[in-house]
Amino acid sequence: MTRVGLVLGGGGVVGQAYHSGVLAVLQNDFGFDARTADVIVGTSAGSITGTLLRLGVSAEDLAAWTVKAPLSGDDDVLRQMAEATLPELAPFRPLQLLRRPMRLPGRHMVARALSRPLQFRPMAAGLSLLAPGRHDILEQLSALRELERPEWPEPDLWICAVRRRDGRRVVFGRPGSPPAPIHLAIGASCAVPGYFAPVQIGRHSYLDGGVHSPTNAAVLRGQGLDVVVVVAPMSGPAGWRPGVFPSVRRYSDRLLRQEVRALEAEGIRTVVFTPSHGEQQVMGTDMMSRERLDEVIAQSFLTAGAHAGTSEVASLLRSIAGRSA
User: Fold this and answer.
1) What phi and psi values does residue 196 have, to the nearest 5 degrees?
2) Any residues with CB less than 8 A from the CB of 192 and at least 6 apart, and which?
3) 3-state helix, strand and coil shares in percent for the chain, rounded to the nearest 5
4) Statement: residue 64 has pLDDT above 70
5) Which of 80-94, 127-141, 201-215, 231-245 tops mean pLDDT?
6) Angle of the 12-30 helix axis to the 59-66 helix axis, nearest 10
7) At residue 203, does pLDDT exceed 60?
8) Which of 301, 257, 263 is nearest to 282 (CA)?
9) The whole model's pTM is what?
10) I want to staple 64 with a disulfide (CB 3.0 to 4.6 A). Which of 69, 99, 151, 314 is the partner?
C-alpha cells in the first residue's frame, strides 16, 4: 500500500479552521481520510488537529466543532471538548511580541551556534530569547488533557516543539525523543513565544514548534513514504506587501519550499495546500481570533477544492484514497 505522511502547520485558531476546510474537501471529494495517514507531523495548531485526527475525529466534525455547528451523533471526543469553557485570549499582535524584552543567550545556545552553525537558526534563537508570555496554553488545552490516554496515539503522531535553552527542535513522539504526556507535548508545540508561557517537560522548557519552522515537513525524510500532503496555513504568496505579517508569510513560504524540495529529492511526491491571497484576506492577521472561522473554512474548502481538482493533484490524491486505518 502507498505510504502517506500528513503535515499540519501552525497558524493559531484560524489555522485550525484552515486545516478543517482543506481536510474536509480531501475526504469528501477525493476519499482521502486524514485519519489513515501513516505519519502525522503537527506543529503548533497542527499538533491539536493531528491529535484530534488520531483520536478518531473526522474532518467534517473538525469543521463543525470549529464553528460550533452540530456534531455527528458518535463523536464523543469533540462533544466533550465543546462543553469546556475556554479562557479568552488577547488579540495576537506579532509586532507587540517583538517589542518585549529579551534575555541574554545562555551557554547552551552559544555552544549550539558554534558547534553546529549550519543547523543553527538565528530567527529561532531570537524568538527563544523573548520574555515569557502572559497566557497559559495548558488552560486552553484542559479538555484535551481529560481525553488523554496513557499510551501515545497510534499510528505515528509527531509533535514539533523548540527547546528554549538552545533553540533546538524536538519532535515528541518520534523514536529517541524525550517522553512526554500528549497534552504537554501539544502545549509545548503551541507555546507562541512572548504570547504564551513556555511549557515545562522534564528538566526543560519548550516553545512553539513554529519557532523552528511553521511546518517542519522535512522531518519526514527517510521514513519510507511515497506521498506527503502538506497543509500550511502560515505560508502562501504574500507578494511584497509591507508589514510584519506579510514578512512572516514570506519567511514561512521560503522554509516550506526548502522542505518540499528536500522531500522530493528523496522521490517523495508532495501535495501542498497554502492560503491564496483571497483566503489570507479572510483569515486576517489575528490568528487567535474566532470571529470569522466559518468564512475561513468556507473559503479554504472552495480554494482547496479547485487546487485539488487540477489533473496532476487529483490523480495523486486518488492514488491514496480509500485507505483503511
Assistant:
1) -105, 155
2) 12, 44, 92, 97, 133, 207, 208, 210
3) 45, 15, 40
4) yes
5) 201-215
6) 140
7) yes
8) 301
9) 0.90
10) 69
* Alpha-carbon gap, residue 123 to 193, rounded angstroms: 12
Please tell me the distance from the alpha carbon of residue 197 to that of residue 187, in angstroms, as a whole number. 10
Helix residue ranges, H only, the chain: 12-30, 45-54, 59-66, 76-82, 94-98, 107-115, 122-128, 137-140, 142-147, 182-190, 244-264, 277-283, 293-308, 311-319
CA-to-CA dists, residue 118 to 53, 112, 114, 127, 166, angstroms: 35, 10, 9, 18, 14
How far apart are the C-alpha atoms of 261 and 185, rounded to whole Å?
A: 28
Distance CA 31, CA 82 (A): 27
The neighbouring-strand residues paired with 322 are none
Judge contact between 44 and 77, C-beta under 8 A.
Answer: no
At a CB cut-off of 8 Å and minimum separation 6, what does 271 contact? 227, 228, 229, 230, 308, 313, 316, 317
Identify the sign of the CA torsion 32, 304, 289, 233. positive
The secondary structure element, H or E, covering residue 205 is: strand 204-208
Rounded to whole angstroms, how far apart are CA atoms 265 and 237? 23
Q: Are strands 156-163 and 168-172 parallel, antiparallel or unpaired?
A: antiparallel
Cell of 42: 503537527
Per-residue pLDDT tens over the stretch 19-28: 999 999 999 9
Residue 201: strand, helix, or coil = strand
Q: What average pLDDT does range 186-215 have in this prediction?
A: 94
- Where do we find the cell 549550539? 112
